[in-house]
Amino acid sequence: MTVPRLTVVLAVLLLPACKVSDRSQPAASSESAAVAPVLTTADAQDPHSFAKPLEARVTHVALDLSVDFDAKRVGGTATLDIQRKPDAKQIVLDSKGYQVTAVTDGEGQPLQYRIGPADPNLGAPFAIALRPDTRRLVIRYRSAPNAEALQWLTPQQTAGKQQPFLFSQGQSIFNRSWIPTQDSPGIRQTWEATIKVPAPLTAVMSAPKSAEPLTQGGMSSFSYRMDKPVAPYLIAIAVGDLTFRQLGRRTGVWAEPATIDAAAAELVDTEKMVTAAEKLFGPYRWGRYDMIVLPPSFPFGGMENPTLTFLTPTFLAGDKSLVSLIAHELAHSWSGNLATNATWADFWLNEGTTTYAERRIVEAIYGPKVAAQQVALGIDGMNAAITDNGGPSGADTRLAVDLKGRHPDDGLTDIAYEKGAAFLRTIEQAVGRERFDPFLRGWFERHAFKPVTSAMFLADLRQHLIKGDKALEHKLQLDRWVYQPGIPANAVPADRQAFAAVDAAVAAFARGGAPDRAAWQGWTTDERLRFLNKLPRTLAAERLSALDQTLGLNRTANKEVLFAWLSLAVANRYDPAVPALEQFVTSQGRRKFVRPLFKALMEDRQWGQPIARRLYPRARPIYHPMVTQELDELVQAVPGSEARAGAS
């Protein structure tokens, strides 16, 4: 069939830029010299941004900011290079709460601007009037103390207990609370930053260092530059008492001194993962792959910020049993960071492709059995997500999901991750890896540093893999997978042997047998998770006690296993687990863990709600604003919940 022709705004070379500061800058690489395109098709129009990039768009952001821990603000200037139609009268940026004091052009001449009415999800449009020759904007501003992207921690909320800490989380649309730009994944931008922080703190960002740090007058200055166009949600910062440990030729980890030894030990296989990923998906095109282990407030398992993956400390199990998280974030260096969903409706292109790629990396490093077990757990998660999102006919079980009028984080479910991965596994099985692997590698190469849509992916499949084979087209059911709800019948099932011994143990326990301590001690984390998650959801207190006492569940240091256990305990009102629950929800803020537990507690009016309302005021100060926004509404009538959503 004929491949649809996709119209884009053609990339043009950046105009020579005036120096933003007197520090030296590295030359841009040849692959990043051109401005990334903006797609013009209807499915690429972003309903979660006020920007009108076909009229005027941002190509480069230069930040010169100071970090004020006392005021909980960052402030300074953002200098934006823009492209615009000759007759464009204004450029529209995204904003959410930052305070603008002046806007000028590159020559210092004032420009008129207006911040429009606010939407609770999207923030407000920030419109700047353009003169006929305007190609650069200089915006003087400061973030609000409750900026959604920024988490400010007191020394007591860190591992070292000595210095404050700041980190950002930009995905999906939170960077508009501290960076004035067009905050849409379809408008890729190069960027640079000079960040001034109180000495002796260190500032790190998701870009290569462009100058050596300089300390004077009690302040230290750090400079970074990303010369490849990235989606703006991938601009990230962390500031704190940080130290660095080299892991391999191009890999390393940042962490607080109290955490660095454990982090380095857990991440020792990272260089091997990068090598394995390159063999599968092509050259790693970002230079270094470093990571930072953040304080426990970080709301996600990881965030794939280019050159500096942000990680939760909850993956530090001491036995490398949770390092598939690293494989996932590393895989984003191809799926998500190279080829990025143009809008959040196609989030599966980031996460489904990455979940598939993660398990291929795990297979290469740890073997096919481990990968098969993780696929089986993923299918369990996919099936649960189908149930949670309205069943097989639920509209939100589509890969290309309609998020108009909603926050894009409504699409952050296992549908995107696991149904997306299942789709790619189905294609792989149908054509074989000898054909699918070159296709996927080619997809990343053909769309490197560009936005993509579901329609583009299907068109690419048809052009480069199916190639007019009508029988294969019919067999794959491409449109059914992407645009229809539920799971198509051609989905590849889990390997029944992956957890055969574990499933037998589940059946034995369900029949009244005792837990098998010896078997448990020999199981991997994935096997333990399978066992706990497959147990009957309704269990008597004595059966829960047998599990707890025999397997030491309340005392486990593995956070994934503890979460699975606490979910079962809360569902059955198991009082002996409440102290472990209390410690768990007040010592870390990972959204994946705390949201379901508080939700389950609040659904139990008699037993759970009093516990939730007792614990949440204690837990709330360490949670990221994106977590408290959800939980403030969920845990109603909690003292202090009338405070702003991002209070820390």
Describe what you observe in this structure.
The protein has 648 residues and is α+β, with helices and mostly antiparallel strands. 34% of the residues lie in helices and 20% in strands. The chain has 19 helices and 23 strands. The strands form 6 sheets. It has a 7-stranded mixed beta sheet, with no helix packed on it. Strands 17-18-19-21-20 form a 5-stranded mixed beta sheet. A hairpin with an 8-residue loop joins strand 7 and strand 8. Helix 17 runs antiparallel to helix 18. The N terminus and C terminus are likely disordered.
Radius of gyration: 25 Å
Number of helices: 19
What overall form do the CA principal axes indicate?
globular
> What is the spatial order of strands in the main beta sheet?
6-9-4-3-12-15-14
Tell me the quaternary state: single chain
Protein structure class: alpha+beta
Number of strands: 23
Instruction: Work out the strand percent.
Output: 15-25%
Distance between the termini: 55 Å
Measured as a percent range, the helix fraction is: 25-40%
Mean pLDDT: 93
Largest sheet: 7 strands, mixed
Which stretches of 5+ consecutive residues score pLDDT under 50? Answer: 1-30, 637-648
